[in-house]
Specification:
2 domains, alpha+beta, 5 strands, Aspartate Aminotransferase, domain 1, 11% strand
């Protein structure tokens, strides 16, 4: 039976300072426990001679959904040769500079995303295609800690295979210049706004596809319209969905979360 109190720590070993029985007597105790948990991961990074990105720490500390599940997945990944980095506003795990896996948190689940999952041997049939336009990416979704515990050895095997794919420089076969399908709501918006249409068409194919996938991922028309309206300033500025618009990013042109310092 899984001990939820130790889940998320290597081999189920929670730091001694976190083995506290009963509720915290005040807010200061709760904060102290949280700080000790963060220090535990810092020590784990230090043992691998890996710097800890404060943005990654903020991600796990401030996670509103699936906090324990994400921490458990983090522990699995830190027990591999992968390096933890901050990319695309999420913890990303790389091998010799190449992107291998990334963590996602959604409303209904959290997920482990493999950048070249289509190239992996999926013996357990657990990899899914995020969207119909996705080519190489695949993900594994989770809704509870028990799933992660049960699949932990398998996840490490999949990560090991993904590292081999990256190490050998294997590329996902492109399907070529498939016609980009735009949602009707975006087409309507562009028909009534020639400047927006020209700006969108001036974007690189990759940026256009990212926007199209972001918009079409919404199931409700009202949600698609809302997403389009929020992205119009970005499109008019010639920026991609994940590009920096504040000018503070240290990983230009990508956003690295530096805009949070302005909040």
């Amino acid at each position: 039976m899984l001990n939820r109190s130790t889940q998320g720590y290597p081999q189920g070993k929670k730091p001694a300072s976190l083995n506290r029985e009963g509720p915290a007597d005040n807010g200061e105790s709760a904060i102290k426990i949280e700080e000790n948990g963060i220090q535990f991961y810092r020590n784990l990074h230090m043992s691998k001679n890996i710097p800890v990105d404060p943005l990654v720490e903020d991600y796990f500390r401030k996670a509103k959904n699936w906090k324990e599940e994400l921490s458990a997945l983090r522990t699995v990944l830190l027990d591999t040769p992968l390096t933890e980095e901050w990319k695309w506003r999420a913890p990303c795990y790389t091998f010799q500079g190449g992107n291998v896996v990334i963590l996602h948190q959604f409303k209904e689940n959290c997920a482990l995303g493999f950048f070249k999952g289509a190239l992996l041997k999926d013996d357990k049939d657990i990899l899914i295609k995020p969207g119909e336009n996705t080519q190489a990416g695949r993900m594994i979704r989770f809704t509870n800690l028990q799933e992660i515990k049960k699949l932990s050895p398998i996840l490490k095997t999949y990560v090991k295979d993904a590292i081999e794919v990256e190490k050998n420089g294997i590329k996902a076969e492109s399907k070529g210049n498939k016609e980009l399908l735009l949602p009707g709501e975006l087409q309507t918006e562009m028909d009534g706004n020639p400047v927006l249409k020209a700006s969108f068409q001036a974007l690189t194919p990759g940026r256009q596809r990212a926007y199209a996938m972001h918009f079409t991922a919404a199931k409700q028309p009202s949600t698609r319209v809302s997403r389009i309206q929020k992205c119009i300033p970005r499109i008019l500025a010639g920026k991609g969905l994940n590009d920096c618009i504040c000018g503070l990013s240290q990983k230009m042109p990508q956003c690295d979360g530096s805009h949070k310092s302005l909040e």
